[in-house]
Each structure stands twice: as C-alpha cells, then as structure tokens.
Amino acid sequence: MDFNIGFIGAGRVGVSLGKYFSIHKLELSGYYSKNLNSAKKAARFTNSFFYSELKTLIQSCNVIFITTPDDVIPQIWSEIKEYNLKDKIICHTSGSLSSSIFFSINTLGAFGYSIHPMGVFFDKLTTYESLDKIYFSIEGDEQYLSALKNVFNGLGNKVILIDKDKKPLYHLASVTVSNLVLSLLDIGCRYLVDCGIDNETALSALMPLIENNINNIKKSGFINALTGPVERMDVDTINHHLSVIPDKDAELYKHLSLNLVDLSEKKNIQVSYDQLRRILNNMRR
Fold it and tell me: How many CA atoms lie within 13 A of 181 on its CB side?
C-alpha cells in the first residue's frame, strides 16, 4: 500500500510531522483545519495542499492523521466517520488516548491507530529538525501495524509497540520525565531564589547540575549515576533539609527520597539504609 498522508489539524504536531514526512519523501497530500489560514500556512511550509472542506481531504488521502488537541479527537471522529472510509488508515497522535477512540471503525472498513511521537513540540517551524532522534509508539489494528512500524523505521526512528490498555500509564511515563521534571526543576530554582538569588542566576547556577545528571544517566543508567546525601546515608544533611522544606513540598521530598533509598540499596548492597527510611517515613506531612 502506497501511503498518501493528510492531516486534520495544523498545529505544532501536525506541521512538524508533515514537514518531517515531506523532507523524507513520503507522499503528503495536505491539511484541513477549521482555521483555513493555518491550513494554508501548513501547506506552504510542507509543500503540500490545503483543503477548505474535510470531505475533500478524506477523498484525497488513504492515511489520515488527526493532530488536534485530545479533547477534539472524538468530535473529529464523529465527523469523518460519516464519509466513506473504506480501506483508509485513521491515526491520531495523542499520548494518552488509544485507538479505541475510533469506535465502530471496523464496521466502516477502515483501520485505526494511535501513533505518538515521543518528543517535545516546542515550535512548529523548527521541531521537525530533531524528530529523527525520537521514538514513536504505535498501537492499533494488526492489518497495517507492521507496515506503519516499517515506515517510521525507514525514516530512522525507533518504534515501541504499545498495548492499547496501557496508554494512560505509557503517557504518565512521558509526562513524568518531561512536564513533571520541569516542575521539579522550577521548585529547586525557587529554593535558590529564596536564598536571595535572582531567577536567571539561579537557573544558570543549577544548569550544570541538571545537564551533568542527565548526561550521567544517559551514559551509565540511574543506579550508577546516583550521588547525593541519600546515597551517602548522610542523615544530618537530610535532617537539615527536613527542617527547612516548605510544608507543601514535604510529601514530594519524602516520596522522591524513598525512591532514592531503593536505588541506593541496589547500588550499595552492603549498606543498610533502614535508619534513613525510618526518618523519611516518620517525617512531618
């Protein structure tokens, strides 16, 4: 099957993927968006076409990517399922939703998939440049699962095949290491600001720690990259932290530190961390 790809939605994900596909010589039909100007700009950027009517895009493509916000996908599906979808591949790019969102798709002779790019789409005009480094997760109908996997492998991307029932947990993994880490770093910078240091300097001062930690994890894994007072069983330092940590952050500190205890026990099997575990479990909430 020769893929001819169309996009419903001309935001950061749709435009970035379309550009990525086009520069790798995949057949790109074009874009439909309720904002016609967005579709025109996306088409111009990706050297494809724009469609003023949803029906025309559907007729022109055999692979349709829905790249709208998650809460719009059910509405889009309700609209397009009224057209002839026989033998068409319908995909969405949500990280949390599964292909089950395309209810009754088999009765229409079509095939549904969730294809999630595991990257950060910060800017629609430049993100495509880094997409060759990311993984894609795919789940859906067995009919074209291998073919879709091969398409992305052919682009140079690695692919993870996901159980549709695990999509919420899968998405939690992505959010934890991206958005929640961002929040955690912001909290750490705020502690330094509370020491009388301006925001910009605080981030600049902590950035080498952040970058070195990520690089060490990438190079050696979590356990071998582990350092700090928990791993050293530095009880006095931990108690100093507990004496100054804001109440609203105490439970977060406890949970993260207890996980570090678990990792430390795997790294230093000869060391007992029971005292530190008791201190953390008995800390104020």
Answer: 11
Count of positions (residues) in the chain: 285
- What's CA 70's distance to the chain center, in Å? 13
Res. 2: pLDDT tops 70: yes
Instruction: Please list the residues that pair with 50 across neighbouring strands.
Output: 31
The DSSP-derived string for the chain is ---EEEEE--SHHHHHHHHHHHHTT-EEEEEE-SSHHHHHHHHHHHT-EEESSHHHHHHH-SEEEE-S-GGGHHHHHHHHTTS--TT-EEEE--SS--GGGSTTGGGGT-EEEEEEE-S----TTTGGGGGGGSEEEEEE-HHHHHHHHHHHHHHT-EEEE--GGGHHHHHHHHHIIIIIHHHHHHHHHHHHHTTT--HHHHHHHHHHHHHHHHHHHHHHHHHHH--SHHHHT-HHHHHHHHHHS-HHHHHHHHHHHHHHHHHHHHH-TTS--HHHHHHHHTS--
Give me the pLDDT at residue 1, please. 67
Which of 185, 140, 182, 184 minimizes the C-alpha distance to 162? 140
Q: In angstroms, rounded to a whole number, what is the distance separating the alpha carbons of residues 191 and 278?
A: 25
Dump pLDDT digits (tens) for 139-166.
Answer: 999 999 999 999 999 999 999 999 999 9
Q: What is the mean pLDDT of the chain?
A: 95
The structure tokens listed for 52 are: 């003023």
Q: What are the residues whose beta carbons fall under 8 Å from the beta carbon of 116, sequence distance 6 or more?
A: 93, 94, 95, 136, 137, 138, 170, 171
pLDDT in tens, 10-55: 999 999 999 999 999 999 999 999 999 999 999 999 999 999 999 9
Place of tokens 């026989």: 86
